[in-house]
Each structure stands twice: as structure tokens, then as C-alpha cells.
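Reopening this ticket.

The earlier resolution said the output was attached, but the attachment link was broken on my side. Pasting everything inline this time so it's all in one place.
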Amino acid sequence: MSDIKDFVIENGVLKKYEGAGGDVVVPDGVIAIGPEAFAYNDTITSVFLPDSVSIIWRRAFAFSRNMAHIRLPNSMELIHDSAFMSCKALIDVEIPTGLGRICQYTFEGCSSLKRIVVPEGISYIEDLAFAFCDDLETVVLPMSVTKNLFALFKGLRCNHGILQDCNNLSSIVAPGISLKDFSDPKDKLIAVRGYLYERERFTDPDIVASYNQYILSQKKRILPYIFENDLVQWLDLFNDSGKITKKNVVADFIDPAIASNADQCIAFLLNWKNANEGDSENLLSLDESEKPKKPKTKKTENDPFAPEKMTKLWTAKKREDGTLELTKYKKNGKKISIPPRIGKKAVTKLGEELFSSARNAKQSIWASQITEVYIPEGITEIGIETFYGCHKLKLIEIPASIEKIGNGAFFQCFKLSDIVLPEHLTYIGECAFYNCVGLRDLEIPAGVTKIEKKAFRDCYNLIIHAPAGSYAEQYAKENNIPFVAKE
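Inline output:
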């Protein structure tokens, strides 16, 4: 429990918090939180604001990196810009209903936020309000936010957009905004996903029509998402508009629904086929044993790394020494095993942006879902931005053969917490582990002779362990990183 002596309060304004941290309860009667009152405080874990507080001033909680929770009263009338900038541990926040707007940079860099619900009554959200919220998946906007919100921006996630670089964003629920007001095609698709999930929030018939028209015109892009999440209710839209026909029901609907294991959609489509064709003998069954099976192939003892198999998964290019560098992964998945070779040619390098979420829009979706990667012995180099923005990457096995980790290789891999650097490693590039806030105790081998200055920038919890007198010790001291000499 906080003591009144922990606070510097003048005329109802909390000027500065000077307590020991932990769970902080602000005294009743405080009417405003002053500029930078809690800023740069790494000791507080939660803050409770009483109903008497109506204003939070600029940067009041900025860079309080371990604050996971804050209670904001509905009596709040104004939260100034940058109030919670880079509160990286903040995992949930209930935005007060009394606010009229959300100012610029308010939640910029709150990388642990996953869902934001903006309450009814807020009519304007300023630029970069939720920018760089890397784990943000869903944003729900009220009817009071209108298309005027987009007047100054080309897109929600463009430079200076309210959601700039929120690369994990999967849905935007915007019931007050017509789909035609989303100028960026990527934003359109994300907005449609929000509409698919929370249709009941959309009440304006013209806005509903704009979404429905887009869904029907983009059947090939929307149906995979419908089947992936088994949103059977949306098949009525395709049926009522005549988009499901005898000619396309199997190829365009039933087959992809089966491939996605969308049982409710499969049942709907089989019933449609039965009702419209009347040929029950040809119907597909929901029984797993009667689903279409892939043609059987003869069992062989083929090499698992044979070129004909590997080229279906990977694109590679030859290096100067005749070995291979992987340049593209053609599939997707949460757990990935790197091949040691393709045919007889050894793989020795993971190429630039191989799994980067910044490579393109399609890759950004699955790359940000990767959780585990296994690198075999023989790989010597992890390239530039290989795992850039793989926000959910928790486990990576690095073999003893790795000698070099390139610039930005693990840039903003927030969940990465347990990584073993091999003895043969000699070089760690610029921003290699930038903003890897999960890194804590990291052993750096004595053989490392070069670490670029910003290699561990914004790794706020990092402690470097290395032999006394090593290059790593010198680096830690020069960059103000806690160091422990390895016995």
C-alpha cells in the first residue's frame, strides 16, 4: 500500500511519485497527474487512480516499462499526448468513457497490448495514438468515430497513421466508417475481418452494404478466412447473392472448407448441395473416412532432403563457396525446422528477411505467429533481419557452427527469453536483438570479438554474463548494461 509520503502533491496535482514501486494507489483528492510524474519508473507494476482524477498530463507514465496495469476512472476528461508512451508491459487498459478524444502518441510503443476497445463518445483519435503496439491484434472503434478520422491519413497503418507498424493487427471493428473510406487495401481486409466477427455492431445500412459488396467482390480473399475460422453464418451472404452455384460449390466452397476442417461450413454446404442437386449418392460425407483422400503414392525410401521435396518448401541461392543460402520459405507454420542441406549441397546461411514480418503483407501475417525454430549444425550465419518482427518467437536452437548474427536478425522478437549463443560466434550485428524485452540472462562467449553498439538497444531486462576481461564485458560497461563475470 502506498504512503502519502510517497507523493509530491501541490494544489491537487501529483507532481512526482517517490515511493518504492510495486502496486501504487494514488490518494483520493488528487485531481491531476502532472507531466512525467511517473515517467521512467521501472519499479511500479500497477497504478490505481481514484475517481477524483480528471486529467493526466503529457508523458505522465512514459517509459514506465514494468507497469502492467492501470485503473483509469470514467471521470477522466483529458489524457494528454504521450501519456503512456513505451509502457511496454501494459497488457490491458480500459479507456475512460468521459474522454472526447485520444491524443497523439498516447499509447505509442505499448508493445504488450493485444486488444483496444475505444468507448462510445470519443469522436477523434490523433496520429500515432497506438503506433508500434507490436502485439496489438484487435481494435474496436465506436460509432462516434466517423470517417473524419481518416481525413489526414492515407491509411491507418501508414507513416503517422494511428496504427503505424502494428504488424500483428488482424481485425479492426469500425461500425461508423464505410469500407470505401479505408484507402489502403490492407486496411480494407483487416476491417472486413472485424466486420465478420462483430457484425451486430454495424447498424447503418449504407455502411453494411459497403462491407457486403466488398466481401462478395473479393470472394477468393475472404472465403479462406471464413473457412479458417468456420464462420458459417457468412455463407448465407454468398448463397442469397447467388454466388454459390452447382458449378462452383465443390471447387470454390466444399473443397477449401474441408481443407480447413471447417465442420459447420462443410455441413451447410453439403446440405446446400443435397437440396440443389438431389444426388445423395455423390455427396461428400462429414465422416472422416469418407472425405476426399489424396491419391496414394508408393512408399519409397527417398532422401527427406531431396531437391524435389525441398524446392517445394524453400528457395535457395548458391554462395561463393558452393554452399546454399536459404532466401524464401514457401509454406507457413508456428514451428519450423531448417534443412541442413538440399540434395547434396549444404545449407550454411539463413538469408536476408527469410522470416521477416516486414518482407511483405502476406508474410507478415504468418511470420508474426512463429513460436519455435530449429537450426541444424552446419549453418554458419544468420542474415540481416532474418527473424525481424517475429513477435511470438519463444524458442530458437542455435547450433555450435554459427559464427555471425547479422544486423536486425532478431529485431523486436519480444517473446525471446532463452537463447544460447555458441562458442564459435564472433560477431553480433547492429540492432541484432533490438527491443528483445524478454532477454534477461544472456551468456556471450569469449570468442565474440565484435558487437555493434546498438545490438541490444532497448533490451531493458538484459544482464550480460561473460568471462572477466572479455570483449563482452567491455561492451556491457560501455553501453551501461548490467554485467556478471562468468566463472
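Reporter confirms the inline version is readable. The longest helix spans residues 263-277. The first strand starts at residue 7 and ends at 10.
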